[in-house]
Write a sequence for this structure.
């Protein structure tokens, strides 16, 4: 199974790039964040993407997530209780619960971010207790460790605070594996987001905010977790995950 997550920073602005990514990678599951549009505002090329069934869960000009599944026009989608501002959607694909998530940045409402992360850990705990395989994909808006931030960007700001990092660790403790780090454990320059100024992306002065977290058994089947650093014009890069059958 191939899964992609990408914070597009505006689906309409990135329409051609989304189509290019799908044509190039042919993912089984595509998770998008920060689509910044209500479904009726989106072009048919996206909402009617050939060969895919899915949901565009968004609102005008802000937030929003999408979850598209190849060949599954009738798949059932769920929104967890902690979904707010169109930030979470999940579906069961080939027996695996897959979620597209856009955790609040926290700059305007830090308690809402903490509540979201806390509830997300609870969701993972319930899935583990029930024996449900789980993959969480998306912009989690936390750089989990110091290694996940370029040395020039390390500071005591939201996204790097101890409380957030502890909650991220608590999420992993519920039976999840950070697939990107597991497959590339020695990479101290593994980032997915770069501030859109001073050539930060070209200089690779970034943060790792976009993740694939998978249940232990699924993570053991991962053969690829690649950041497509050079792709697209969003301030985030797509992350591609491949799981062996």
């Amino acid at each position: 199974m191939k899964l992609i997550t990408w914070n597009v920073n505006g689906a309409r602005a990135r329409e051609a790039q989304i189509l290019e990514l799908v044509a190039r990678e042919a993912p089984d599951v595509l998770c998008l964040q920060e689509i910044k549009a209500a479904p009726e505002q989106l072009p048919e090329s996206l909402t009617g993407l050939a060969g895919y069934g899915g949901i565009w869960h968004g609102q005008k000009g802000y937030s929003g997530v999408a979850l598209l599944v190849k060949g599954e026009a009738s798949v059932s989608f769920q929104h967890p209780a902690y979904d707010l501002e169109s930030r979470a959607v999940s579906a069961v694909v080939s027996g695996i619960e897959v979620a597209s998530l856009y955790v609040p940045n926290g700059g305007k409402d830090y308690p809402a971010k903490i509540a979201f992360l806390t509830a997300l850990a609870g969701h993972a705990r319930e899935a583990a207790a029930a024996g449900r395989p789980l993959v969480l994909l998306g912009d989690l808006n936390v750089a989990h460790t110091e290694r996940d931030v370029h040395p020039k960007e390390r500071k005591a700001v939201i996204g790097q605070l101890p409380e957030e990092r502890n909650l991220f660790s608590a999420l992993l403790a519920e039976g999840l594996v950070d697939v990107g780090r597991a497959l590339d454990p020695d990479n101290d320059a593994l980032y997915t987001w770069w501030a859109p100024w001073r050539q930060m992306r070209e200089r690779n002065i970034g943060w790792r905010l976009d993740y694939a977290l998978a249940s232990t058994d699924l993570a053991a089947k991962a053969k690829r977790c690649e950041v497509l650093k050079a792709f697209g014009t969003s301030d985030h890069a797509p992350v591609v995950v491949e799981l062996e059958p």
Q: What stands out?
A: The chain has one domain: 2-243. The chain has a mean pLDDT of 97. The first strand starts at residue 2 and ends at 7.
